[in-house]
Amino acid sequence: MKLDPLVSSLSLYDIANTPGVAADVSHINSPAQVRGYAGEEQLGKALEGSDVVIIPAGVPRKPGMTRDDLFNINAGIVKSLCTAIANYCPHALVNMISNPVNSTVPIAAEVFKKAGTYDEKKLFGVTTLDVVRAKTFYAAKANVPVAEVNVPVIGGHAGVTILPLFSQATPKSNNLSDEEIKALTKRTQDGGTEVVEAKAGKGSATLSMAYAGAVFADACLMGLNGVPDIVECTFVQSSVTELPFFASKVRLGKNGADEVLGLGPLSDYEKQGLESLKPELKASIEKGIQFANRS
Question: Which residues of the chain are under the pLDDT cut of 50?
Answer without folding.
Answer: none
